[in-house]
Queue: 2 jobs
Job 1
Amino acid sequence: MSKQAELLKSLTPREVMRQVLLSQLFFILLAIGLSLFLFNPLSIWLHLFSWDTKGIIVFAVLPALTVVLINIMLQLIAPNQLDDGGINEAIFSKRTTPELFIICIVVGVAEELLFRGVIQTSFGLVFASVLFAIIHIRYLKKPLLLISIVLLSFLLGYIFEVTNSLVYTIVAHFLIDLLLAFLIRFTSEQGEEL
């Protein structure tokens, strides 16, 4: 178990929730702060939230379902290669359904505002995608996890390039996190029953 996972396991569920939400609040504040310097005019933000129902299905729901299915297949083929040291389990395994929704929507909104909304808009797809992968530092020692997060990052970035809207990437990010969080909670509960 990594030091980060050990630290998370030493915290109460409420403290873990607070740490996750504080880290995402930092991303939101960073996105706002960077926008003040990089966006001229700030009204650029208003153009990043267009959407339509058909687009949500094509550019958010279907990619999210595909990513989750691929993750499930990889879990079956190489389960040890997808172990992040117990961090995701510490965050998601003991959560109620409303808590999972709150965590996943806050993470989806915060990370997409910063990485696609500000960084990709200002510095391009490659820089934003590589930076997004780097912040998931716990994945750097596991090649399959690293490849997965890099591909996911480029997928979300590509969706933003094609749609020029954060709504699709936020929905896709939220769905991926939520479905995988439910899977982690379910797997943890099954393990406890054995």
Job 2
Amino acid sequence: MNKPAQNINQLHREQLVYIGQILRETREAAGLSQAALAEKTLIRLSLLNAIEVADISQLPEPVYTRGLIRRYGDSLGLDGEALAIQYFTPATQKKPSRSFWRLPITPQLRPVHLYVTYVVLIGVAISALSYTLQRMSYQNSTLPVLEGEVAEEAMMPEGGPGSEEAESPTAPEAPAVPAEVADAPVRVTVQLQEQSWLRITTDGTVTFEGILKEGDSKIWTAEEQLRIRAGNAGGVRVSFNEGNAEVLGQPGTVAEATYPPNNTAQLPRR
């Protein structure tokens, strides 16, 4: 801390040696004493002497000393201002402060930043997908629920009730039962809508086994029981004792029926 002060005092002393020499030589050349100059300038004699001998310990602060030098020089007919500015204190260079707003603000990406960004993107994607699914679910769930007459009208085929029946193909009429078999206890009429293999068992005896074509119609009779086994049940319509004709089963499947009807079994295709 003392070293800079010593340097400044040394500098002032060296400056004042040159200035004091000029003032002293000029005063002596003019034949004036320090006392006469003290009276003329109203500067104390000790200060005038300190200026001439460069004794800075007897002088006030440099700013006041410069004022004394100016007045002393002007009283001798010199340029007091030019002399005064020779006595100066060099400006110290201030260490630039590091302001907060001058700190580098360039972002530095680190792995944690990338991880956070990745998590945020995944969250946004999941939210968008969830929102889309909710919207789709809402649209599906907001379809109007039809009830009562409205539902019946919506389910009703075009053309009004009975239109489907009207459009459905008319079941072929069962052939008339010949008079010679009209008294048989069991009478089964078979009509072929599609070609099918058939096996007819009458009272335990196989009376027919073969293929009938579409449009064929046959009547078999029995005393106690008649069994029909068909390879294409969907193409065979059967009427028992002139009753309503019914399809024996599903198309392409094997079915067997016994008359009088106890049950109708669906058998796997062989």
